[in-house]
Sequence to fold (327 residues):
Amino acid sequence: MLIRKPSDIPSSEITSESSYLRRRELMGKAILLAGACSIAPHLSAEEAKPSGKALAYTKAGPGSAPGAFTDEPLTPLKDITHYNNFFEFGPNKGDPAEYAGAMKTEPWSVTIEGEVEKPGTYTLEDVLKGMTLEERIYRLRCVEAWSMVIPWIGFPLSRLLERVRPTSRGKYVAFTTLYAPEQMRGQRSSTGLIDWPYVEGLRIDEAMHPLTLLSVGMYGHVLPNQDGAPIRLVVPWKYGFKSIKSIVRIRLQEQVPPTSWNRIAPNEYGFYSNVNPQVDHPRWSQKMERRLPSSLFNPNRIPTKLFNGYADQVASLYSGMDLRRYY
Fold:
């Protein structure tokens, strides 16, 4: 098991918040949860200057999911916020940081519907009510073979789903990103690559797994827009495109939901999209990944691990499945 407690992270490993070039508006009082503690104790006074509103949260304790932490060095904040896939703002890695400031994240609501006993549209404050935020450090790898280690702040998706009471017919969970072409310039594209809005999905047992996170922050502050503000999914054993950003709709249903990249190229992007070095993308090998930061002369390539290193925690979800067929 890879374990590292947030309080053990020295300030020297955390990039200064001055690296944020894209500022976002302060999030309202909904984020400051009753009973949560002060900002991360490992941040110095200078480092704790917010680029977004500081988040109160508790240290992850005994009830945390096994494997929620890694002792790998954190990715510099500049890379996390300036090397992104968020096609709603453009196809280039730098487009989200440049253009995502146009997205309005207040007010925000999430509609939960389908096979649940308590469907409805919930404000962000409703979603967070009673939640205890815990800092969790995940290794997040993407299909392009680059990866990051990010100190996410959030709570297990299962906590929210339990509140709305899934029925026995809720076998899959579908997610939808905000559709707002006037704010998201990439959605005005006429290329037809993605049929907006962006959609993703999980099997119910994947969604209920304690490592599946709804994140509202990182590095001690609310999520910047380019990283999926104000609430996004993090599924650390899957390729990055499964971790859908800026969620506005969650639907539980009996059938497998469509997913955006699977619609575009089903032979390249399967529904499960588990990190697996033995299953190559049709156009490149996935045996190695590029850990950011990297450069031409220091590509920082490392071997890809099955389930992104979380096999001990999640392999049982796929017992008996042919992972080459169900990729």
User: Anything to note?
Assistant: Residues 6-318 form a domain with the Sulfite Oxidase; Chain A, domain 2 fold (CATH 3.90.420.10). Residues 1-50 have pLDDT under 50 and may be disordered. The chain has one domain: 6-318.
